[in-house]
Amino acid sequence: MSQTLQDALSQALKLLDEAKKVPTLKQLLENHDWSYEYSDDSYMYNRGAKQKRDILNRMQELKCPYTFLQLQKWSGKMVLENYILDPGTNSYYRQEWRDKGWKMYQPKISELMYRDEWEQIEAWLKDQP
User: Fold this and answer.
1) What percent of the chain has pLDDT over 90?
2) Is 2 helix (H, G, I), strand (E, B) or coil?
């Protein structure tokens, strides 16, 4: 095998190895620290900010049809059908939280998405590199 061909093959294998290391947009979203902005630790804040930049860059590369906010809702599984409206407080809660007496965060309607939108995002993300 000639040296030129050997070098080309070596370069191709190196690129293939690098491509395997690049996380998918779905992985970036699932591993993102969504509360980094509240951190007092500068390392955690900077790490979260870098994760967000990586997500935004990947969204741009893929020409993502969804907004960052939609992807955040997808990541948090903020599906309206999983919540129940408490007419007394006009707040949403998960039934299992109420059954256990947990006082969990109660999202506003604007922080939730319908299941069909969640499923559309899930399907789109599965098709992405």
Assistant:
1) 59
2) coil
On whether the CB atoms of residues 73 and 123 are closer than 8 A, the answer is: no
Please tell me whether residue 91 adopts helix, strand or coil conformation.
Answer: strand
The Cβ of residue 92 has, within 10 Å, a number of other Cβ atoms equal to 19
CB proximity list for 107: less than 8 A, separation 6 or greater: 78, 83, 92
Q: What is the pTM for the complete model shown? A: 0.77
User: What are the tokens at 9?
Assistant: 């093959």
Tokens standing for 119?
Answer: 């499923």
The residue behind tokens 């899930």 is 122
pLDDT tens-digit readout, 1-19: 567 777 777 776 666 555 5
Helix, strand, or coil (residue 48): helix
